[in-house]
Amino acid sequence: MKKVKRIAVAGATGMVGKAFQGLLEKDFFPDAEIDFLASKKSKGKSITFRGQSHIVKDLSEYDFSNTDLALFSAGASVSEEYAPKAVSQGCAVVDNSSCFRYDENIALIVPEVNGDELLNYELPNIIANPNCSTIQMLVALKPIHEEFNIKRIDITTLQAVSGTGKEATEELLDQLIAYEGDNNFENIIYPKQIANNVLPHCDVMEDNRYTKEENKLLKETHKILDPNIQVAATCVRVPVLNGHSESIHILTEKPLSEKGVEQILSNSPGIKLHYGLDTKDYPTAATDADGDYLVHVGRLRKDLWDDCRMNMWVVADNLLKGAALNSIQIANLIFE
Fold this sequence. Notes:
By secondary structure, this protein is of the alpha/beta class. It is 30% helix and 24% strand. It has 9 helices and 15 strands. The strands form 3 sheets. It has a 7-stranded parallel beta sheet with strand order 5-2-1-6-7-9-8, sandwiched between helices. Strands 11-10-12-15-14-13 form a 6-stranded mixed beta sheet. Helix 1 (15-26) crosses helix 9 and helix 4 (132-148) crosses helix 9 (320-334). The longest helix is centred in the middle third of the chain and has 17 residues, at 132-148. It is globular. It starts with 5 loop residues before the first strand and ends with a helix.
């Protein structure tokens, strides 16, 4: 297995780019040289990393020929232009955008779910990182599917504003401050006020009356886990700074029990199970997910009418496991 000597982070000044910085500084690829890339407007900015100052380079001018791995999180249009360029120069790419997710020739990977697909994957190449909501859902459901065969998933996501980006986070904070003043709200990033509100509207509306985010959960589940699973999603933006929450209801082929599911999940990688031992034993975005590497699962409840149905609550850090961390875990599968 090849050793990583140099890594490029494309989109280094964004929220996911900063999450990459934190992960690489603390826990991953400590011996690799790191180049930080962004658009022309960010060229020349200084980033303090591993105790030294690093100058942000212009992605459009960067030569990938001496770089082993590029971590892209700069948007689909940027990835479409520059990820193939990186591969053509001998660099492996893990892309966090939606650009390549549905390309049948490009792997879409959640390491705990379908990481084995990379065993015979030809490199250098592009590997796609799934949508943040899909990642945490499938980490939680893969072990259950292996044992009980999930036939249908009904999911409601409650998604933090960090999933939209820095400007959305600032919009929420500005609106919360306005509550203390003149209540004069300005909606720029979201179509309606997000402070003290919930919006059943993540991404654009599509022709089937579902949003693009909702359709992603369906398409990505089919590509990553099983094309036979029915998926119905409602994606909701909530006034939470970071950490996505999901209420999930599953229908399985085989009858399941709370104890049986608990036993499976307690031995599954990437998961922390909250058993509901008391009235406070359940995970939340702020107290458990934010800043944590794991997918947290709690509120396991058998359906009241059907032995093949169960409800659960799943939370995770959308900037870490939902984006940067999952990308780096993919890189760990293909590099030392």
